[in-house]
Design brief:
The chain has 289 residues and is of the alpha/beta class. It contains twelve helices and eight strands. It has an eight-stranded mixed beta sheet, sandwiched between helices.
Amino acid sequence: MIVLLSLLFLQPSLPEDITIISATGDTLFFNELADALMDYNVIFVGERHDAKAAHEAELAILTALAGRDSNLVLALEMFEADVEEVLYAYLVGDISEDSFLAASRPWPNYQTDYRPLVEFAKGNKISVVAANVPRRAAAAVAQAGEVSHEVMGVDSVFMPDTFHLDSEEYYERFSATMQAMPHGGPMGKMNVDALYKAQVLKDAVMAASLEPWLDHRILFFCGRFHADHHLGIPYQLHKNHPDFKIAVVALAPASEKLSLKDRSGIADFLWIYSPQPSAKQPAGDPEKN
């Protein structure tokens, strides 16, 4: 009880210019959102990787849920599965932060945006899952246009048992996003179908990374495209575990004009914030969402 109370009192102060809306259109106080999320097995929080306000929201949500569930597990898109042991070694104090960072390929905005999450988890003995497929494996699949042990090479150990490519809605949304990208960019000359397979590989690997932890409540931070509309990772997880209660929280800037219909379709809960100066975008990452 002492630990739980201390976590609750560590709740970060929230900016006044946020609005939290449920899928039914109800406006919620922050504590009402946190209480509502306790009804779910897995909670996906989708961010814009370059939004400072989104990262502040994530720390607030993590703190609130950890205060309500001492067995909470945190999962992060921002670390790849092959650095799981390094991440664990840092969390339990076996290696220094310098050693951890040297071996874990942190994103460029780690210090400002993701370090607070990892340090909170470390200080409160919260397990953290390095969920993503190694970037080199996704790149190899995008080049080859197929998912196989041969293509993934040493990273084939992370190949999931299930791999669902059957969502027409996800394919259409992904294709539209790729088509909208400048043709001179790194994706310009690549096949959309091949890129889609690499995208779904990421989703499937991240869903599979949760398998050892499904007897815990899991809080998963990822880019919005990986979770909006219950597609991406939630879709893969739901196909494998249809009885699981999965929530999606979308962190969206106020400048993203959405009708009530759009809001209810994107997520179970929408956290609207005022835009702030952008952080540095991860190098080579096509996702702004």
